[in-house]
Predict the 3D structure of the following.
Amino acid sequence: MTRGTDAMMEERGQRKVATGIWLYDRTTPMELAIWAKPAHLASSRFDEDDHLIETSPIPETKDGFLYFYWPGGFREYMTIEEAKAAAAAEPWGPIKWD
């Protein structure tokens, strides 16, 4: 991850909670990170123009956060364990977590 990407994520209220390494072409180490974001910022609460839908329910999570991995996408998971499992299931897996 570049410092610019990390700063952008942090400005959006997200925080890096885990990092790992996967091997591009089974030879080149690449970093992957699990990010936590407040559940009230769930993508399900925004319309296609990225406007908050105030009446949309906030997902109920055990700790008030949703998790996603980057690079790889922004699908949200209810726990860090679910996000790690999804990342490891990608074609580039396995991932060695720090």
About this structure: The first helix runs from residue 3 to 11.
